[in-house]
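Tip: read the tokens left to right.
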């Protein structure tokens, strides 16, 4: 195969091109004019036109000019190069090769690349305006769809450009695709994971399990959504590490969306000492209920405070309630004030918070005499 590719090049060495000095001079003159034209075009686009566009009220002309600068620059070089080569009046065939056909194919390929460059810039321009439109809507689903649409358009444009170039250069696209049948089977097997990820992204958008900026937990990864793509989703963990999760995992795993919580739960058991009397216990339970009732930051539709347990070393009071805020920092502030209010209530009632203890009894003389209590031995506070 390498010999087939190098064969035409070897043929080029078997002939000599007869080019006049006048043609060579014109060739270099066109090259100089091309470089000067390119510099002039860049100056007009980057300075004058941008200055004029900056005076208008719309941003469309500014962004469009920026999208044109790169393609126009390369287009001038390709056109100038084509005119310079044409001025040499090369023979149509040389060494058994269609020399002009090869040159035309090379410049056509250059034009195709510039056209593709321009189309990709225009797609970015479309994405910018679609993003501006989505910011005016209440839902964030469209904000997630815009990057997906832009990526799909770019992939489609690249594929169509490649097929057009291949067809124009004389290759039969249909035969080429058919010839890839066997290789396509192997490619399909290798692309199973990619296809699974694409279906995962479709599931994400259809189920609306989360959106950009949401705080989620999936398969052991917890953080906020930064980007949703065709193949993967990027999650920024709270330690600021960026985790790329394949979209196929969202099909197989449970997704916990903390952002969509309507309220946050407070759930714990308060242990008080066994020295607490029945009257004090009733006052403690009623006092905690009053704290919740009088604080507007709690959800008053449902909460529970009950004396539930005779524990090994404490009397347990079950506390179950919800805060209206779901913001983590605000929730912690409410919970902190709630705990301090409970401590103040216990201090006012003279009730102590219990800690794990153990009582040891000893018998004198090893007989059946009276037991002697050595007192409570603390094992440490929770």
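Filled-in amino acids:
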């Amino acid at each position: 195969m390498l010999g087939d590719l190098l064969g035409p090049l070897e043929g080029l060495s078997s002939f000599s091109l007869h080019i006049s000095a006048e043609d060579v001079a014109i060739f270099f003159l066109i090259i100089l004019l091309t470089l000067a034209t390119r510099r002039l075009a860049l100056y007009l686009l980057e300075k004058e036109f941008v200055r004029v566009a900056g005076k208008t009220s719309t941003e469309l002309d500014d962004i469009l000019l920026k999208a044109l600068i790169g393609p126009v620059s390369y287009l001038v070089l390709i056109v100038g190069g084509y005119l310079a080569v044409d001025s040499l009046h090369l023979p149509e065939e040389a060494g058994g090769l269609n020399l002009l056909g090869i040159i035309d194919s090379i410049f056509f390929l250059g034009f195709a690349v510039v056209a593709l460059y321009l189309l990709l810039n225009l797609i970015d321009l479309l994405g910018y305006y679609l993003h501006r439109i989505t910011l005016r809507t209440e839902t964030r689903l469209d904000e997630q769809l815009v990057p997906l649409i832009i990526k799909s358009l770019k992939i489609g444009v690249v594929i169509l450009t490649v097929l057009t170039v291949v067809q124009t250069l004389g290759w039969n696209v249909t035969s080429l695709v058919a010839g890839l049948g066997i290789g396509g089977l192997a490619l399909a097997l290798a692309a199973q994971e990619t296809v699974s990820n694409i279906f995962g992204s479709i599931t994400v958008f259809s189920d609306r399990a989360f959106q950009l900026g949401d705080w989620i937990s999936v398969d052991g990864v917890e953080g906020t959504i930064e980007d949703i793509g065709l193949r993967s989703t990027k999650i920024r963990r709270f330690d600021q590490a960026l985790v790329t999760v394949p979209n196929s995992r969202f099909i197989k795993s449970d997704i916990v969306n903390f952002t969509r919580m309507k309220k946050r739960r407070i759930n714990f058991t308060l242990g008080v000492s066994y020295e607490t009397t029945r009257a004090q216990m009733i006052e403690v339970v009623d006092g905690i209920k009053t704290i919740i009732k009088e604080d507007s930051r709690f959800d008053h539709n449902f909460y529970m405070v009950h004396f539930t347990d005779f524990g090994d070393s404490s009397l347990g009071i079950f506390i179950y309630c919800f805060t209206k805020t779901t913001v983590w920092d605000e929730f912690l502030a409410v919970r902190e004030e709630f705990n301090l209010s409970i401590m103040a209530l216990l201090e006012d009632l003279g009730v102590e918070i219990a800690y794990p203890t153990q009582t040891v009894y000893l018998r004198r003389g090893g007989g059946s005499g009276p037991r002697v209590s050595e007192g409570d031995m603390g094992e440490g506070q929770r």
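The two ends are 77 Å apart (CA to CA). The chain has three domains: 18-175, 192-259, 264-357.
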